[in-house]
Amino acid sequence: RSKSFGIVVALSWQRASHDQQGTFDLSMADVYREIDCSICHEKDIKWSHFVCLVCPEYYLCCKCHEEKNHSKPHRPYHPMQPVLSQQDFFKYVNSVVPPEDDIRLCCPYCGIWIQTEAKLLQHCQIKHDGDGDRVRCPVCVKFCTLEQSLSFAMFIDHLKKGHCERGRFMFCNTCRKTPILENHHSCLICNDYDLCENCHKAKKHNQTHMPYHPMQPVLPKKLYAAQKTSSFNIYRCPFCGENEFSAQGLSDHCRELHVESQAIRVRCPICSVNRSPFKEYYLLKDSLLDHLKNYHGILPKGSTYGSYTIDRIIIQLPSTI
Questions:
Q1: 120 Cβ partners below 8 Å, 6+ apart?
Q2: Which UniProt keywords apply (predicted)?
Q3: 19: nearest Cα among 284, 281, 208, 283
Q4: Least confident of 38-52, 80-94, 293-307
């Protein structure tokens, strides 16, 4: 039985941009960034703080927010978005069907609370069309820290393509079919390489992809929701291609058999299935085991870590029993 453990996750997000296929992705940068309270200067409030959606780099710890403490140029009427707890963050990124009903977003213009990204988009288009204020995206803020301030047009475009339409611009690298609305397969070795079901069955591929590369099956989210697939063994090992792992089983398998292969850059099968805007579409810069620990909160069973260090990120983990 494992004791509970705490992980300090270092996340910094780069500004999203359109690529040639019209997708709108957010990349996770491997840069550690401390967040301190702007009032009491409490250190490292990453998992328990509020972020102003108007002021640049203005953060409040829970205590200062409850006591309504603030400093200039921030104003008390500025909308403040709470950041997800560590437990809820891992719940979101590990779910094949993200729990949108639990998001609870703050409108960056009027401050009212809205439950889903689609409703936030509709609200802003109707109530705040042409608003001249530059704001930060509450969805990105809730999961991370997006430093870029966006004009109204940029914010609407970002909200629509980066969050509300995520996954709708997936295209097949062989037949160029887009969007792929049915089942598809993502290569865990190639950089951003996906095949529709027909091309995968016909074993069609281009020259950059090798037929022996492990391919992660990805179903439409409606099927995952109907089958309650989050508890199933659906992940494929990117190193040997063995299939039908749970997230925990994948971590245990890679630690047991593929520690020496960790230098190979691969795509995370959990992120490939999730297809959230916060997943890393491209090849991991860190090892897969590091990624599973830092980004998904998954620790291999039987591990006896004391202090585990990744670059400038220090993770304190008690031993398991």
A1: 105, 107, 114, 138, 139, 159
A2: Endosome, Lysosome, Metal-binding, Zinc, Zinc-finger
A3: 281
A4: 293-307
Closest CA to 134 of 41, 212, 55: 55
Quote the CA–CA distance of 241 and 243 in Å, as a whole number.
6
As given in the structure block, the two tokens for residue 40 are 């009491």
Place of tokens 């889903």: 116
Centre a 10 Å sphere on the Cβ of residue 2 and count the other Cβ atoms it contains. Answer: 12
pLDDT tens, 152-201? Answer: 999 999 888 777 765 556 788 888 877 777 788 999 998 878 899 999 99
- Contacts with 77 (C-beta within 8 Å, 6 or more apart), sequence order: 111
Q: Tell me the sheet residues that pair with 52.
A: 80
For the CA atoms of 88, 94, 96, 102, the dihedral, rounded to the nearest 10 degrees, stands at 0
Angle at 103 between CA 9 and CA 20, to 5 degrees: 75
Dist CA 78 CA 180 (whole Å): 40
Q: Kindly tell me the burial class for residue 196, based on how many C-beta atoms sit within 10 Å of its own C-beta (0-12, 13-18, 19 or more).
A: buried
The secondary structure of residue 1, as a DSSP letter, is -
CA distance 149 to 19: 20
**Per residue in 72-126, pLDDT tens?**
889 999 999 998 887 888 887 787 876 655 678 999 999 999 988 889 999 999 9
Global pTM?
0.70
Amino acid at 119: K
Task: Give residue-wise pLDDT tens across range 253-289.
Answer: 998 999 888 778 898 898 888 765 554 456 676 788 8
User: Token pair for residue 55?
Assistant: 């002021």
| Residue whose tokens read 């909308």 | 79
